[in-house]
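Structure tokens please, single chain.
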Amino acid sequence: MSDKLRVGILGATGMVGQRFIQLLEDHPQFETTALAASDRSQGKTYAEACAWRLPGELPEDAKQIVVQSPEPPLDCDFVFSSLPGDVAKEAEENFARAGYPVISNSSSHRMAADVPLLIPEVNHEHVAMIDTQRTSRGYDRGFIVTNPNCSAIVIVMALAPLHARFGVETCVVTTMQALSGAGYPGVASLDATDNVIPFIGGEEEKIEAETLKLLGRINGDAIEEARIEVSAQCNRVNVSDGHMASIRVKLGRPASLDQIREALASFRSVPQELKLHSAPAKPIIVRDELDRPQPRLDRDAGNGMSVTVGRLTPDKVLDFRFVALGHNTIRGAAGAAILNAELLAARGYLGQNRLR
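Here you go.
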């Protein structure tokens, strides 16, 4: 029997599901043993069911896995979920109830009071909410943990060291989000070409709400949200991968430009201390060039897991402004969930049901 934990992927044929398959190839702790997707894919091998859209070949170890229904039981120790929101809530709860840890990229449970919304570098202590969740929901070995919206991750990664040192009071953010964030086939080519679309349904509300939970603190058996005024405006742009955010902040304590830069550039946290496999050596990379970051040049920094910050300068309306960029399907989706799983394994929350 392999020492690796067995992984199931729900929503395996979609863009994020494919990214899970790609990132889990040759992972030192996890191996993909079960795949699940919609009715039209079930009963087929993954090679038959999946229209592979990522660079590189479909990993060999996934090709012959037969796609199943996204319901328990599955031959795995825990599941990653990239199910669409309309089916994720019930399916994820069914798996958790059946004893499977669920690490979800879907939005259905992010704002539930007893569900950790996790960025390991930012709020690793929120994993303690798993015990509260198990008690409140009557789960035995199962639980649900979520990673944030793909833009919220980029924004909050950049805000976290500033909030810890100086207290962020106000954040005004405008995003420029890549086409891959809409999935496949996503935005119609005639809408995307030569165009910017100044609306992404539900995105602004997610950023504004999730930021407060992510930067909040555990108080007893609840998460006390951060007291920050957040205003977001979201745009879809004609870029394949990489979400960019133009961010302005007002701080609660005085800070110089050098102090802001140092806080960002020196930011490290538990994933770096534990040397988790997917953790970048530098969670935040600060660029001093006037024209960086750029999606084409910077989205793959830290194997797609680093957030690149540039254009850092004082702001005449608030205190400081800067631009942050991250890979939306790696740090913003599958990579984030895998890093969450690595943290949960290190904390002893995975592997408790290996005799299933």
